[in-house]
Amino acid sequence: MPVLGFGTAAQTPPSNQLELDQLVPIFIDAIEAGFRHFDTAAVYGTEQPLGRAIEEALRRGLIKSRDELFITTKLWCTCAHHDLVLPAIKESLSNLGIDYVDLYLIHWPVRMKPKKINFYYDIADVIPFEMGPTWEAMEECQSLGLTKSIGVCNFTCKKLTDLLALARIPPAVNQVTSHQLLNQISQAKGKNIAQIALRWLYEQRVGIIVKSFNKERMIQNLQIFDWELSEDDHINISELPQQRVHSGGFIDPNGPFKTAEEFWDGEI
């Protein structure tokens, strides 16, 4: 898996054909800039334009084969049901116009009532997550060759432990969100804050997903490999306070997750 990936989530999912069409050249720009790992999701609404960009990149000779790319997509909560996982990945593959993805992830440890995938949802649709049956279906996706690897997003240590106890195929990845406050170091290094954050993550030996639809910033995001942070920089960054602040909007007094502490299994 390429250590640096390109995120395709828009601020709001594309709502019409014009908005979809506008994303295609952005993704082509990312391929031209040098990105080879693309991170999408069913709920992002960007699988189809990414698929069209891949097709165009092949036509132009920007890549020689689909195998040069590492494609990640994700199972949305409304499809986190044993009998809906396989149809969901097949729909994603159809949207992308490819035969397999390199990595298929459970987007959240959350299940919703089955319905059309939508970025906006009613909290009343959130129901308890059934890890075992959902993961069993994810394993089937890998066994069928529809994805090379499977994994999760936003899982706590407790949930990972619970999953490892029942999994036949262990998760290859736990994708999480990470933010760093790095203004002082960026000024000293002559780099922008994003580059400092990306370099720090790179030196932690983790895979990174970045997102910018601006071509200049795409190139800047790739310019992190020919310099390094000092030992003092590492100490200062590591001492920054950490807290889980994003819960996907799933917290509700009347839902399965009544508090952030409950959602994150107390790991906040």
UniProtKB/TrEMBL annotation:
<feature type="site" description="Lowers pKa of active site Tyr">
    <location>
        <position position="74"/>
    </location>
</feature>
<feature type="active site" description="Proton donor">
    <location>
        <position position="44"/>
    </location>
</feature>
<dbReference type="GO" id="GO:0016491">
    <property type="term" value="F:oxidoreductase activity"/>
</dbReference>
<feature type="binding site">
    <location>
        <position position="107"/>
    </location>
    <ligand>
        <name>substrate</name>
    </ligand>
</feature>
<dbReference type="InterPro" id="IPR023210">
    <property type="entry name" value="NADP_OxRdtase_dom"/>
</dbReference>
<protein>
    <submittedName>
        <fullName>Non-functional NADPH-dependent codeinone reductase 2</fullName>
    </submittedName>
</protein>
<dbReference type="Pfam" id="PF00248">
    <property type="entry name" value="Aldo_ket_red"/>
</dbReference>
<feature type="domain" description="NADP-dependent oxidoreductase">
    <location>
        <begin position="4"/>
        <end position="181"/>
    </location>
</feature>
<dbReference type="InterPro" id="IPR020471">
    <property type="entry name" value="AKR"/>
</dbReference>
<dbReference type="InterPro" id="IPR018170">
    <property type="entry name" value="Aldo/ket_reductase_CS"/>
</dbReference>
<dbReference type="InterPro" id="IPR036812">
    <property type="entry name" value="NAD(P)_OxRdtase_dom_sf"/>
</dbReference>
